[in-house]
């Protein structure tokens, strides 16, 4: 299997084959507009602008499964990203990352990189322990702004939990690109 085998819905109602991004490193992120981590959009855009020409492509997938923090329509989400963060990387249609309705892409990402979410993630670990304790110890995405790094052949390299910032990821990616 490869990430390139998946098709995802675009915000305008179309679809996109992820094979289009073959040959590039991908950073796949589930995002939300009303989350305490939403300012990561700014750092993701900076990372996209800094490393995009060197082979990095950021792909964002809005998700409303964590505290209802992405309530808007796809068009409202696009407007929010453009106006507030001047986002130029693709922000796709809203989808589920966990549960029975999880998009197959996210089922694959989670299986390939189950994560290492634990107390080292501080405030977010405490929050998830109280609000979603059933998710602990599973491969579920724990919260908004979980990031998956995919290599140019479509293999999942690793998972970055939400508290790992785009700046920290950028330092690691600079050596790969």
How would you characterize the overall build of this protein?
By secondary structure, this protein is α+β, with helices and mostly antiparallel strands. It has a single domain, classed as Glutaredoxin. 31% of the residues lie in helices and 16% in strands. It has five helices and six strands. The chain has a four-stranded mixed sheet with strand order 4-3-5-6, sandwiched between helices. β3 (25-31), α1 and β4 form a beta-alpha-beta unit. α1 (40-51) packs parallel to α5 (166-176). The longest helix has 12 residues, at 40-51. It is globular, with a radius of gyration of 15 Å.
SSE blueprint and pairings:
Layout (H helix, E strand, L loop, with lengths): L6 E3 L5 E3 L7 E7 L8 H12 L4 E7 L11 H12 L18 H9 L9 H10 L15 E4 L5 E5 L5 H11 L1
Helix pairs in contact: 1-5
Summarize the structure.
One of its GO terms (molecular function) is peroxidase activity. The chain is an alpha+beta fold and 177 residues long.
Strand residues, percent: 15-25%
Order of helices and strands: EEEHEHHHEEH
Estimate percent helicity. Answer: 25-40%
Using the 3D structure, state the CATH architecture. 3-Layer(aba) Sandwich
Number of DSSP E strands = 6
**What would you report as the Rg, rounded to the nearest angstrom?**
15 Å
Biggest beta-sheet profile: 4 strands, mixed
* Tally of alpha and pi helices: 5
CATH homology superfamily: Glutaredoxin
- The oligomerization state is single chain
Strand order of the largest sheet: 4-3-5-6
Keywords: Oxidoreductase, Peroxidase
Protein name: Glutathione peroxidase
Organism: Rhodococcus rhodochrous
GO molecular function, one term: peroxidase activity
């Amino acid at each position: 299997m490869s990430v390139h085998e998946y098709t995802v819905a675009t915000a305008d109602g179309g679809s996109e084959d992820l094979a289009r991004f073959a040959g590039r490193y991908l950073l796949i992120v589930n995002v939300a507009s009303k989350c305490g981590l939403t300012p990561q959009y700014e750092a993701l855009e900076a990372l996209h602008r800094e490393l995009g020409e060197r082979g990095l492509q950021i792909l964002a997938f809005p998700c409303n499964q964590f505290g209802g923090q992405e309530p808007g329509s796809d068009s409202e989400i696009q407007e929010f990203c453009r106006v507030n963060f001047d986002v130029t990387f693709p922000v796709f249609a809203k989808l589920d990352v966990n549960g029975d309705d999880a998009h197959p892409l996210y089922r694959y990402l989670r299986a390939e990189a189950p994560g290492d979410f634990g107390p080292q993630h501080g405030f977010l670990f405490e929050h998830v322990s109280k609000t979603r304790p059933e998710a602990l110890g599973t491969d579920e995405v724990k919260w908004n702004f979980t990031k998956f790094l995919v290599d140019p052949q479509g293999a999942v390299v690793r998972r970055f939990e939400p508290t790992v910032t785009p700046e920290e990821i950028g330092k690691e990616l600079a050596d790969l690109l």
